Each structure stands twice: as structure tokens, then as C-alpha cells.
């Protein structure tokens, strides 16, 4: 072997040894720090349907920027649901009150017709005949017509 071949082998030898060496602890710490960052890559301009459906666009940065909008949407959703619940409760109460009103009208109509029936002259006369304690009697004479002359 020539001197040149020996020099080449010596140069190659340390290179092979470097591959099998473990990296220094400072290099490991640096690599871990780079991988452990919370920030995701910024979304590209070419968001496709696959990325949206896959959830790839929901990065930490996007969520941080849109947290106000998300909170407003949540509040409006709760207001919408509570408003709908209150409206349904009001409609149930209105239906209940309508049925009560209908029942009250029927009762008033029934009592009014009973009162009309009891106030008829024939029924009043029958009640007077049947009641022994009554001092009222049926008149036997027609009513008198009193005429008062006018003074001129």
C-alpha cells in the first residue's frame, strides 16, 4: 500500500467512529427543546378539504387567535337555547290558561242560564207557592194605574 492509501484509510477511520458516537448532552437538550415547542406550524394558504376534515387546521395559534370568537359563539348558543326553553314554557302556560278560560266561560254560561231560568215569573210564582214561610202572595187584582194631573 502506498502512503496515500494509508492516509485515506486514516481519514475514513475517524469518520466511521464519529457515526457510532453518541451526541453530546447539550445537543440532545437542544434537539428536545426544538421538538417540545407548543407552537405548531402556521397554516398554509392552500387549506384543502382533507386538512379541514382531518382537523389539521386546528393549530394552537389559530385557536389562540380565535378564542374570542369561540367564546362569543358559545355564549350566543347558550342564550339561544335558554330563550327557546323559556318560549316553550310560555307556550305551555298559554295553552293551560286557554283551557282554564274555556272552562270558566262554560261555567259562566251555565250559571247564567240557570239564573235566567230561576228568574222567570212562572218559576218565581211556583217558588212562592211552595214556600210556606213566605209573606208574599200572588196578587188577585190587577195593578192600579195612578194618574197624577200635571199642574200648569
TrEMBL record:
InterPro entries: FtsL-like (IPR045755)
Swiss-Prot/TrEMBL keywords: Membrane, Transmembrane, Transmembrane helix
Stretches that traverse the bilayer: 63-81
Domain of life: Bacteria
Region (Disordered): 1-40
Organism of this sequence: Marseilla massiliensis
Matches recorded under Pfam families: FtsL_2
Name by which UniProt lists this protein: Cell division protein FtsL
Biased composition (Basic and acidic residues): 1-23
Amino acid at each position: 500500500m502506498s502512503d496515500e492509501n494509508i492516509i485515506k484509510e486514516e481519514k475514513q477511520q475517524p469518520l466511521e467512529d464519529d457515526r457510532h458516537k453518541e451526541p453530546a448532552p447539550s445537543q440532545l437538550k437542544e434537539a428536545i427543546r426544538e421538538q417540545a415547542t407548543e407552537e405548531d406550524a402556521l397554516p398554509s394558504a392552500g387549506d384543502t378539504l382533507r386538512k379541514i376534515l382531518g382537523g389539521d387546521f386546528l393549530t394552537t395559534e389559530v385557536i389562540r387567535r380565535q378564542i374570542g370568537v369561540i367564546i362569543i359563539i358559545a355564549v350566543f348558543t347558550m342564550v339561544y337555547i335558554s330563550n327557546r326553553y323559556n318560549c316553550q314554557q310560555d307556550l305551555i302556560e298559554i295553552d293551560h290558561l286557554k283551557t282554564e278560560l274555556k272552562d270558566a266561560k262554560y261555567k259562566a254560561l251555565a250559571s247564567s242560564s240557570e239564573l235566567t231560568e230561576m228568574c222567570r215569573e212562572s218559576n218565581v210564582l211556583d217558588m212562592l207557592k211552595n214556600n210556606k214561610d213566605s209573606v208574599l202572595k200572588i196578587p188577585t187584582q190587577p195593578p192600579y194605574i195612578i194618574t197624577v194631573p200635571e199642574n200648569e
